[in-house]
Amino acid sequence: MLRQAATVITRHDLETTLAALLPRLSVTCHPWWILGSAAVVLHGGDPDEVLDVDVLLDRRDVPAVFAALGLTPRSGVPDGKFRSEVFHRWNLAALPVELFAGFCLFEQGGWHELVPQTRVAIAVGEGMAYVPDQDELTAILRRFGRPKDQRRIAALSRISPSPSRSESA
C-alpha cells in the first residue's frame, strides 16, 4: 500500500494506475524506474499533484513493454531541456503513463544520458515499483531544475529517509 498522500484522489489514481501498469512491466529484463511526482509519492512525500506517471525504461526492454501495453515505439520529440530516444504515452489507466528510454538532459552545453544508479523497490498492491533512492531522486529533480521540481524536492525534504530497500541497478 502506498503511504498516505495529502490528496486521497491522487493516491487512489496512482494506486489504480500502478495496479494496471506493474503487471505489464513484469516483461522487463533490465532495471526501470518511476521518476517525477509519482516517485515522490512512492517515497512518502506529497508533491501537491500527480498528473502522470513517468517510467524510464532500458532501451532493450522497449519492444516487450510496448507490446504488453499495445503501443508502437516511436522517437521522442526533444524540447530545450529533455529528449528521449523512444517516448510514448499510455492513456488506458486512471493517470497517463509516459514511458521513455534513452532519456537525456541538456546540461553544460550538451546532452547527457540519465540512468539512475540506485533502485529502491516499493510494494504497491501485489506488485513492485522501482524508484531512485531519496538522495538520488532529489539530485535528479535538482538537475531538472523546473519550479515543479523544486516543489518535489521540498516534499522529499519533509520526509525522513526510507529504510534501505535498495538493490543494485
Q: Which percent range fits the helix content?
A: 25-40%
Record field, number of beta strands? 8
Main pleated sheet: 5 strands, mixed
Query: Cα-atom Rg, whole angstroms?
Result: 15 Å
- Overall shape: it is globular
CATH architecture: 2-Layer Sandwich
CATH class: Alpha Beta
Query: What is the end-to-end distance?
Result: 23 Å
Molecular structure report:
The protein is 33% helix and 28% strand. With 169 residues, the chain is of the alpha+beta class. It has one domain (8-168): Beta Polymerase, domain 2, CATH 3.30.460.40. 31% of the residues are buried.
Spell out the blueprint of helices and strands:
Layout: H1 8-25, E1 33-35, H2 36-42, E2 53-57, H3 62-69, E3 82-90, E4 97-107, E5 110-113, E6 118-124, E7 127-131, H4 134-144, H5 147-157, E8 166-168
Parallel strand pairs: 2-4
Antiparallel strand pairs: 1-2, 3-4, 4-5, 6-7, 6-8
